[in-house]
Amino acid sequence: MLGPVILAASRSDQMRRFVSVAPGTKQVVDRFIAGETVEHVVPIVLDATDKGLEVTLDVVGEDITTREQACAARDAYLDLIAHLKDLGLGTKAEMSVKLSMFGQALEDGHELALANVRPVVEAAAAIGTTVTLDAEDHTTLDSMFAIHEELRKDFPQTGCVIQAYLFRTEADARRLAASGSRVRIVKGAYKEPASVAHQDKGEIDKAYVRIMKILMEGDGYPMIGSHDPRLIAIAQELARRAGRKLDEYEFQMLYGIRSDEHVRLAAEGHRMRVYTAYGTDWYGYFMRRLAEKPANLLFFGRSIITK
Ligand code: FDA
């Protein structure tokens, strides 16, 4: 029951101000956010790759309100790519982007987001890596998929995310699987109405399995974004039945969540990519992590009280 309340708070400026300055916040945020700057995150990337893991890097930020902020988001990713170039990790370090951070919700936002994300995708390709477009709330997805399709004309390796809780997603999965795309499947982290999304956890899990099956049997590259041990076991079985080798799909998990499992799956020979978020505008990302596991909220509450 707490999850939807926290998700509603994730869009409140008043809560943002309160949470951002509350004593004890930093300690909890640090569990999910790998640092504030690219200089903080580079050693974390190297540590992960030394352990046999791969990463997808997210400069946190979303729902920006000016064109200048959208350009700043583009520049932050270009700066990240300049640092990655020196590391020579290729696709072991890719990037995830939220189009709302690139201006998607502003006037002419679709064109603006495409214009801002294209140089990032180009620069990523120039250093031998790629970009995945994150999925945000359902109102943004037609634009996200159109941008994805447009980018794939020149950069076919560009990935996108689909969310199992949405009714539309099985159809999206079929289309993307047939087109040979890289696709990350996740359960979905936003507050969505019952008119567009399953509300029941069991229904979401069943949809997740149906969608994984479509992706595993299709022509694309499935990226299984989940910490759920049952879904991970089912993914392995579906991949085996579809005749996929270990390098023909991958698992993805979030930085700070089930870290032992990251290493265990990599040690078994799986491609395991850690979604590593960094930056200063962490509020929305952090609140979604609290909403996913209300026990995190308890920990957060305690750390505020004991400070
Ligand atoms: P579930 O929530 O059932 O969790 C399974 C277990 O994992 C829990 O029992 C717990 O042990 C652990 N766990 C999960 N979340 C935790 C948390 N926050 N803190 C502590 N433990 C936790 N969503 C979206 O809408 N758009 C997107 O683009 C993305 N991108 C994305 C990338 C990657 C790599 C991942 C792993 C996830 C996303 N998500 C996302 C988030 C996703 O939609 C979903 O909210 C979370 O992954 C939680 O769902 P699980 O599948 O992990 O299952």
UniProtKB/TrEMBL annotation:
One GO term (biological process): L-proline catabolic process to L-glutamate
Residues that, per the record, bind substrate: 98, 288-289
Pathway: Amino-acid degradation; L-proline degradation into L-glutamate; L-glutamate from L-proline: step 1/2
Named cofactor requirement(s): FAD
Alphabetically ordered keywords of this record: FAD, Flavoprotein, Nucleotide-binding, Oxidoreductase, Proline metabolism
Cofactor note: Binds 1 FAD per subunit.
All copies of domain Proline dehydrogenase, residue ranges: 49-298
Domain of life the protein comes from: Bacteria
Pfam family, one: Pro_dh
Binding site for FAD: 163, 187-189, 201, 226-227
InterPro entries: FAD-linked_oxidoreductase-like (IPR029041), PRODH_bac_arc (IPR008219), Proline_DH_dom (IPR002872), Proline_oxidase (IPR015659)
Record-listed E.C. numbers: 1.5.5.2
One Gene Ontology term of the molecular function aspect: nucleotide binding
Catalytic activity: L-proline + a quinone = (S)-1-pyrroline-5-carboxylate + a quinol + H(+)
Official protein name in the record: proline dehydrogenase
Native species: Streptomyces candidus
